[in-house]
């Protein structure tokens, strides 16, 4: 007999509501839950493919131990005991900082075992070596928050349901489901907003799904976002389109910013970015003269050149146009897992510094506090921290829900580092590209085999919302939840790892862990559990405005630092750069194209490439090239090409695509297992071979330039 249960998807960070059909303890169908007040029945093909992921014949259903290069089954308890003993030995011999954890995208989608939990695990034995996917693609958000706001500011969601204008920069929320969109059911939300009369500006090198719907699409040359954004801001200022009262009351450094923007006039910007001057002016007018709206950016911007500056300039649109803490702009979501803010007029800035005391041994990069309160180190330094001898060298690495072999820059060095470790443990559903190099691969539960709440999205849904999911099915294999692996490993290591209400020598449940991670939640877990299985909306299903600006700005003067000295300096650096008509950045280069990375509908980072329904169209990530460039290079769809950067070269499959501008090539990341000897037509192309880890990296965050890469293409 078929039974239907309610849950939410954990394929990506959006957590859409699902209905799951179960027969004989087996998932047989997945579809959207129309009773979920956030997603309203929406799902994407990836979410519906969860039925394939949980039942996949290649899923790791028993933990594996690498013995002389061959993986052999090992029961979970024995594996944890052996791993715990080895970690204890490594700590005793090399110190606590010799142990590190990398948390990938998958590791963020478990409430009980996410990075907020693993940070506490590491700190229980005095290691600060937490690395996450955040510092691979978006550390510029933290730098921009720190510079503009002086610290964290609880304005997390664009109130698009009440906006008169929107500016989306290097993001395609219809596919990427961007957090601040808000993320849930993005196509429907956009359609309703546009029908209501909202005007939309999109800045993207590619004519993406959202760019197709824009009133103005500025198809900027990859890597020139900062130039274009500077010119747009200058146009807003020169035409008196900014909110003078808001700037006078809440903004500092306005005069300094105006001076720094002066060189970025329309003529210069048109020549450098490829965007028509008239379109630039019209885009500035549409956004700035509207009564409400917000500008938001995505990973396409955060991974490209001058990402810290460009990210802050996007936020500066909201500061100059009065779009922060106002209806239809960037607004506050109280969420459910933290205490409610004090009443307006009694609020104080969060006492949190976003740049930590810790610095990397390699390249001297300062750690940051991520979006969810835990401290992390720059991931682009991780491989060198493994390979560089001396005090603090990383000897043991646990990879939780991630795949460094596919997503770290400089693939050859990444593989060398993985093989150098004294201990590599990978927690994964599959024998991933990284797992193939592991000493132990821990078989973990599929999300449908565990209880959960969408903790990651607590302040990023369109209104305060929470949902508790029971297990859909009982796990029938020797599999373990991520949090339990770390808990039991700590006990074996003799480490005093505990949480509020959860003693280190106890055997807690996932519910106990969730409660221990949110001890001051304004909505207790028991109340969330008692609500509808489709989830519960709170606070009248609307975001909050008022009382954040200026009270919670973290700068001493309680003003938004639009003219922060680092911003002024970086604007001068951008203007001083040489400008080339081709793909080159310096006179020593001779590149014809710039390569951007993007998200494919058929995959999420490194997940989905092995699921039949998602790969029925193609089993690789094509190199998308403008048809005119294809014709000029005498290329046809399906041709095998070589893409070469200043660092490396790869093979890829060419595909004509008229959404790409001339001189731009697009390639999705997360494909091309280095250990897979199949041709790229079957496994895809790994863009990370093109990206150096230690050249053209960001000096503040350590981020490798992951997009807008200068390349050549040959047949």
TrEMBL record:
Q: Which family does it belong to?
A: Belongs to the prokaryotic molybdopterin-containing oxidoreductase family.
InterPro entries named among the record's database cross-references: Asp_de-COase-like_dom_sf (IPR009010), MoPterin_dinucl-bd_dom (IPR006657), Mopterin_OxRdtase (IPR006656), Mopterin_OxRdtase_4Fe-4S_dom (IPR006963), Prok_Mopterin_Oxidored (IPR050612)
Query: PROSITE patterns under this entry?
Result: 4FE4S_MOW_BIS_MGD (PS51669)
Which Pfam families does this UniProt record tie to the protein? Molybdop_Fe4S4 (PF04879), Molybdopterin (PF00384), Molydop_binding (PF01568)
User: Which Gene3D superfamilies does this entry report, sorted A to Z?
Assistant: 2.40.40.20, 3.40.50.740, ADC-like domains (2.20.25.90), Dimethylsulfoxide Reductase, domain 2 (3.40.228.10)
**Lineage per the UniProt record:** Bacteria, Pseudomonadati, Pseudomonadota, Gammaproteobacteria, Cellvibrionales
Report the SUPFAM superfamilies cross-referenced here.
ADC-like, Formate dehydrogenase/DMSO reductase, domains 1-3
4Fe-4S Mo/W bis-MGD-type domain: which residues?
Answer: 2-58
Q: Which UniProt keywords apply?
A: Iron, Iron-sulfur, Metal-binding
- Identification of the protein by name: 4Fe-4S Mo/W bis-MGD-type domain-containing protein
- GO terms assigned for molecular function: iron-sulfur cluster binding; metal ion binding; molybdopterin cofactor binding; oxidoreductase activity
Give the source's domain of life in one word. Bacteria
Q: Which organism is it from?
A: Oceanicoccus sagamiensis
